Amino acid sequence: MSMKILLLAAATALITACASSPTGRSQLILISDSEINRMGQQSYRQMQAEMPMSRNRAMVNRINCITEAIIVHLQEPHAPQTWEVTVFADDSINAFALPGGFIGVFEGMTRVAEDQHQLAAVIGHEIAHVTARHGAERVSRHQATGFAVNVLGTASGTQQTAALLGLGAQVGVLLPFDRAQETEADLLGLDYMARAGFNPAASVKLWQNMAEASGRGGPPSFLSTHPSGTERIRQLNNRLPQAMQLYREAQSQGLNPTCDIS
To answer: What are the extents of the domains in the chain?
Structure first.
């Protein structure tokens, strides 16, 4: 086959792989949902095998309550998913969500996310990475640039897969989501929490707490893969009027989660 034909085939594949995120941003998606979900499940089971789960029943119930309140409002194809939540007995200030409907929150996150509203900002943000297909987008970028993703279960392959899906801080490889993906997750997450009846204004306080925690002895693990700063807070403040309207509508419908009650 000639080089011209190969290039034409590659160009055709890239064109047909173009997709749009929930905010309308153009994406390159080369991997199927079933495959990326399998990768997400593989990485999640690895985490569960390697890290102890929380025995703090009140904390586990609280985080499950917040997650359930948010995911019930998600649209297809995510709404029907059975999302699985694990709270890890680890003092790291961290959380993640993976394709396939898997959420992990570290006990240390409750040191900076002080109430149900701030925790909802964290969980909403992480869920948004999944609904916006950020993991699939990043895997696709690597495929498009010639980097094979090894998902056959080897140590290096498992680490690479986890890092691409957003678990870089845990497996020792730092591959943060890019600025566009982070902004998108912030804004989508704000809407998700507001529709569930959580006060979106708490998101600003959360990131202020993150900045304070960073100044007390090194950045939290969460900030290693989730850039913070004044620009993030500015963008959240700009989005707040729209999110507050969603919040008021949710409250008018009787949506008033009480996840802080043990």
So the answer is: 18-252
Q: Is 126 a catalytic residue?
A: yes
Report the alpha-carbon distance of residue 194 to residue 66 in Å, rounded.
Answer: 12
Enter the pTM of the model.
0.81
Distance of CA 118 to the CA centre of its chain: 15
User: Among 35, 50, 68, 126, which one carries the catalytic annotation?
Assistant: 126
Query: 89 φ, ψ to 5°?
Result: -80, 75
Task: Give Rg (Cα) of the chain.
Answer: 19
Q: Is 93 exposed, middle or buried (0-12, 13-18, 19+ CB in 10 A)?
A: buried
Our CA angle for 224, 227, 232, nearest 5°, is 160
For residue range 18-74, list pLDDT tens digits in order: 778 787 788 889 899 999 999 999 999 999 999 999 999 999 999 999 999 999 999
CA distance 38 to 32: 10
H helices of 55-167, in order, are 57-71, 116-131, 134-144, 155-165
**CA 191/CA 198 separation, integer angstroms:** 10
